Amino acid sequence: MKYALILGASGDIGMATARELASAGWSLYCHYHRHEEVVKTLVQELCEKYPEQLFSAVSLDMTQSTVPRAFYEEIGPVDAVIFANGKTVYKLLTEMEAEEMDELWRLFVKTPALICQHLQEKLAKRKQGRIVFISSVYGFSGSAMEVMYSTLKGAQHAFVKAYAQEVASLGMTVNAVAPGAVDTHMNTDWTAEEQAQLLSDIPLQRMASPYEVATLVTFLLGESASYITGASIPITGGWKY
């Protein structure tokens, strides 16, 4: 049986990834911070649908400076780690507080690096360890009003390239998926005019669904993707970046 840890399982992409992986036979550790009921409901759903697999909810505040030992104690065998956690802060750089910058750094880069550091031995023991970041096309192109977000998504791409080289000899792969516009709850505040403007810039004339992103993640975790590592793969509907 294969086991995956999904950070940010309460989000639209994290939840879609959990369902896709469960349907492919994976057992899952589903992480949450604030949305406990959402993840526990998801875990119950998956337990009922796939009774021969194992599903559990694990909690962690990824904006803190350290990862408590208790979190790692909840993680048994693990074959894959998916970092689907995150948030967006829409502000000019001149409006950002120093603590907001530090919090985003910990959320997107430092805590994922600490988790990779701690779980590397377990992933290597499984012989085909997989790590996938849900990053962003803004890590390539940048975006006004999201300077720190874009910067740290770019840092994730750099981490993927470097860490992939470090662990390749252990049979591990490290990749990122870089979506453009995805139809998630994060976008519900957009006006109809803003959405129309966005769609006009996308050749496919629509946003991606969370399940389309999850399908790519599932592929990267499989044996067919065993030669792909150090890659940050855009999924943008043709949106230029």
Automatic annotation (TrEMBL):
<protein>
    <submittedName>
        <fullName>SDR family oxidoreductase</fullName>
    </submittedName>
</protein>
<dbReference type="InterPro" id="IPR050259">
    <property type="entry name" value="SDR"/>
</dbReference>
<dbReference type="InterPro" id="IPR002347">
    <property type="entry name" value="SDR_fam"/>
</dbReference>
<dbReference type="InterPro" id="IPR036291">
    <property type="entry name" value="NAD(P)-bd_dom_sf"/>
</dbReference>
<dbReference type="Pfam" id="PF13561">
    <property type="entry name" value="adh_short_C2"/>
</dbReference>
<comment type="similarity">
    <text>Belongs to the short-chain dehydrogenases/reductases (SDR) family.</text>
</comment>
